[in-house]
Specification:
The protein is an alpha/beta fold and 365 residues long. 34% of the residues are buried. The two termini are 46 Å apart. The protein is 42% helix and 26% strand. One of its GO terms (molecular function) is chorismate mutase activity. It is found in: Cytoplasm.
Length: 365
């Protein structure tokens, strides 16, 4: 046996030994998860026990990243733990997660990134259907897009919060890479239509103008729907992501065609319960202000006074007053924080209504 073969053999023996230890420890962790479920069920004496705790998972993943010493990167290590946690949670109670479908959308990818692959993902064909599914307790949580770094806020999602009783329980950011896809036997010189969601078409506008300027662009309900159509329709192509390409067996004609290389979409996790503080949180509120001079100043000044950073502010037309507006605001901190409560108290003096949409951990991955 050569020195090289001997050295490789020793390393592989070490790997086998480590794998056995990892497997044993994962099963020990899984047993702990089952024990947690038993304790919760005995305490609640019903099936209403809450098994998924967003603040606890965020704390665990932050700890994983803080103590990581490589050579695996922090985010890669956190993703591995996310999947372990997902599998363990499924032993307690498999979760149903509603998302903006159909199967193969970026929203499904965001749901799996946040919850792991051991959940049961439930596609819905519209954002309001995701909300209704969670409100009706058909799904435990829902995942909806809220903001894209290129195209801005997704107004339909914001408008749903005006009437919905659901809370924001978390957020996840997903780097969006668009690809031009076609069936394997497609003659590219004969492509007549390019299908995609209207936002994806907008995010790839300059690339399309330069490379496929004469081809008709057709907006459809989702990128996954575009991929499904192209699978069955000759002389067509689709703009979609890796998941849709794999699901429908399409060939990648051109990769990463988005105009902005850092193109990112932020998704919200919606549920029925408030989330306790995790130590690094964000809060979202809706504020309806009186229609008077200085209204925006009176809204923003308390945040400055109490040292709270805003991360997003958007205006939406009020449904109850023709010329009134509702402000959607994201800011750092938890609703129960003392300085946040002070801000809410001061704003309440000028506002017509304040609606707390939720406080939730800042996205870890």
């Amino acid at each position: 046996m050569s020195d090289e073969s001997k050295a490789l053999g020793e390393i592989r023996d070490r790997i086998d030994s480590i794998d056995q230890q990892i497997q044993t420890l994962i099963n020990q962790r899984a047993q702990c998860a089952k024990d947690v479920a038993d304790v919760k069920l005995r305490a609640k004496k019903s099936d209403d026990a809450i098994f998924y705790r967003p603040e606890r998972e965020a704390q665990v993943l932050r700890n994983v990243m803080e103590r990581n010493q490589g050579p695996l990167g922090d985010e890669e290590m956190a993703r591995l733990f996310r999947e372990i946690m997902s599998a363990c949670l499924a032993l307690e109670k498999p979760m149903h997660i509603a998302y903006l479908g159909p199967q193969g959308t970026f929203t499904q990818a965001a749901a799996l990134k946040h919850f792991g692959h051991s959940v049961i993902s439930v596609p819905q064909m519209a954002i309001d259907e995701v909300f209704r599914d969670v409100e009706a307790r058909e799904s435990h949580y829902g995942v909806v897009p809220v903001e894209n770094s290129t195209e801005g806020m997704i107004n339909h999602t914001l408008d749903m919060f005006v009437s919905s009783p659901l809370r924001i329980c978390g957020e996840v950011k997903l780097r969006i890479h668009h690809h031009l896809l076609a069936a394997g036997d497609t003659d590219l010189s004969k492509v007549e239509k390019i299908y995609s969601h209207q936002q994806s078409l907008a995010q790839c506008r300059r690339w399309l103008d330069s490379n496929w300027g004469k081809v008709e662009r057709v907006a459809v309900s989702s990128n996954a729907e575009a991929a499904r159509r192209v699978k069955a329709e000759p002389n067509s192509a689709a703009i979609a992501g890796d998941m849709a390409a794999e699901l429908y067996g399409l060939v990648n004609i051109a990769k990463n065609i988005e105009d902005q290389p850092d193109n990112t979409t932020r998704f919200l996790i919606v549920g029925r319960e408030d989330v306790p503080p995790s130590g690094d949180d964000k809060t979202s509120i809706l504020v309806s202000m009186k229609n008077c001079p200085g209204a925006l100043y009176h809204l923003l000044e308390p945040f400055h006074k109490h040292g709270i950073s805003l991360t997003r502010i958007e205006t939406r037309p009020s449904t109850s007053d023709t010329w009134a507006y509702v402000f959607y605001i994201d800011f750092e901190g938890h609703y129960t924080d003392e300085n946040v409560q002070a801000v809410i108290k001061e704003i309440s003096k000028e506002a017509v209504e304040i609606k707390h949409l939720g406080s939730y951990p800042v996205g870890v991955l």
